[in-house]
Amino acid sequence: KILFAGKQSITNRLDKPVPYIQDVFVTVALDGALMSESHLRELNPLIIKVAHASNMPATPLNYQQLQEKCEPTYISYKFLDQAVHRSIGRDQDNNVYWDDLNVILTGTLDPGELREFLIGPPLEIEVHDRDRKDSTLKKPPTIFGDDMEDDKIHNVGMITARRTTHNPLKEREKVWDPYGVARFDMSDLLLGQKSMNLTAPVHCCPLPDMAGIRTEDGKLVGIMGAVDGPEAAPLPTGHYLQTNAQLKIRLEVAYPLRHLAPARLKQKVQTPPETADTEDTATKEGKPEEPVVPKPPQCPFARIIFMFPYHDKDFLHRLQAEVTAINAAALKLDQMPQHVIEAALSTYKLSVEQQRSKTLDIVTGFQVLDGEVHVFVLEGLRD
Predict the structure, then answer these.
(1) Using the 8-state DSSP alphabet, how is residue 70 labeled?
(2) Residue among 331, 368, 361 nearest 346 (CA)
(3) Percentages helix, strand, coil for the chain, rounded to the nearest 5?
(4) What backbone torsions phi and psi does residue 156 show, to the nearest 5 degrees?
(5) CA 9, CA 33: separation in Å to the nearest integer?
(6) CB-based burial of residue 217 (10 Å sphere; 0-12 exposed, 13-18 middle, 19+ buried)?
(7) Which residues contact 77 (CB under 8 A, 6 or more apart)?
(8) How far apart are CA 383 and CA 380, in angstroms?
(9) Using CA atoms, how far apart are residues 333 and 165, in angstroms rounded to an integer?
(10) Res 179: pLDDT
(11) pLDDT at 172
(12) Percentage of the chain with pLDDT > 70?
């Protein structure tokens, strides 16, 4: 995909030796531009270049210790529904340079979904500088009875529970290591920007729940003493904030993205089989065609913001009544008395299925007031 960034040649080197091959360089070259002007306009490639990280922490472990115990530093991120992009690794140092390129062909993406992604939460780029090497995680083989954990073979917690975030059956080879996270706001691309140089601080990643995980039914999973996690503890988190670690990237797009339209529900109407013979059949029998419920897209929601004077109580009551009526109808509470509806909605807790639904027609949001202005931020189905 790097060739879509305008480059005419790419050279890569073998990461590590393979049988009969110690080292090799491979070059792919073009004798001209890969895309014509019409293709460039149609595909409109977005180039994400991660330049380098500066002031990477040397505490609590110094660079030499990190190089001995950890894999080379790399960055990774996920753009929309694309595969996770991962850069090559570089040795730990104060400044780490990647000059990593990734090309997103925005013309192949749904315009509405792309717009929602760009105005949504910032793009999170993970900086992995302390992923332990496999050799530090492997446990030497022992005869049964020599390992201190062998006496727990009768513990059902080995299979039915866990004390960490590691599943003993599915994630035995997967371990957690701390890393840094830099977040970038890309919403200015929707304002017509064609190139942006961005710098963001590197923060510590969120810590996993080491005491157990609550399932959807509210039960706490985890039994102390269960043999279900790796013995080696992860390395300590780097002091990113103390050293003012930063990550620099550059965004380039061939043509401005101002034309992106808000996402809309795709209305598809199919003719039932029994009325598909002729168009006049349904009309003569007086049975109109029944629309098939369309599959909701990835972003069927929209946001609306109300700003009005703090003392305008009449508008406030009318807005609250409208939201209450919509939610009561969606949750099938509209047949109850008004005071019961208000009490039920104030304590109603959505189920997991309702939280994940893209067709539940409820309105959610929050309000902010300062004594002069009252702001309502509401979200719900677009149509």
Answers:
(1) B
(2) 331
(3) 25, 25, 50
(4) -70, -15
(5) 10
(6) exposed
(7) 84, 85, 123, 124, 125, 126
(8) 9
(9) 39
(10) 95
(11) 43
(12) 73
Residue 298's pLDDT band (cuts 50, 70, 90): low
66: pLDDT confidence band, cut at 50, 70 and 90?
Answer: very high
Of 176, 153, 154, which is closest to residue 165 (Cα–Cα)? 176
Spatial contact of 129 and 179, defined as CB atoms under 8 Å apart: yes
Which 8-state DSSP code applies to residue 319?
H
The answer to whether residues 328 and 343 touch, using CB atoms and an 8 Å cutoff, is no
Query: Is residue 212 a contact partner of residue 189, using CB atoms and an 8 Å limit?
Result: no
Say whether pTM exceeds 0.85: no
What residues contact residue 11 under an 8 Å CB cut-off, 6+ apart? Answer: 25, 26, 27
Q: Which pLDDT belongs to residue 207?
A: 79
What is the Cα–Cα distance from 256 to 105, expressed in whole angstroms?
Answer: 13
pLDDT in tens, 187-246: 999 988 999 999 999 999 987 755 544 444 444 444 334 444 445 678 899 999 999 999
Token pair of 258, please? 């101002």
Backbone angles phi, psi at 131, to 5 degrees: -80, 120
Whole-number Å distance between alpha carbons of 73 and 62: 14
Instruction: Give the amino acid at 244.
Output: N
What is the chain's length?
A: 383
Decide the pairing of beta strands 74-77 and 9-13: unpaired
Residues 6+ apart with CB under 8 A from 156: none
The Cα–Cα gap between 74 and 128 comes to 5
DSSP code per residue over 116-143: HHHHSSPEEEEEES-PBPGGGT------
Mean pLDDT value across the chain: 79
Q: At 130, is the secondary structure helix, strand, or coil?
A: coil
Q: How many angstroms separate the CA atoms of 138 and 96, rounded?
A: 28
Q: What is the pLDDT of residue 373?
A: 94
Question: pLDDT band at 119, cuts 50/70/90?
Answer: confident
User: In this predicted structure, what is the pLDDT of residue 346?
Assistant: 87
List all residues 6 or more positions away from 109 whose beta carbon is below 8 Å from its beta carbon.
80
Question: Which phi and psi angles does 297 have, rounded to 5°?
Answer: -75, -175
Amino acid letter, 383: D
pLDDT (0 to 100) of residue 62: 94
Is 27 or 229 the better-scoring residue by pLDDT? 27
Give Cβ neighbours of residue 134 (< 8 Å, ≥ 6 apart): none
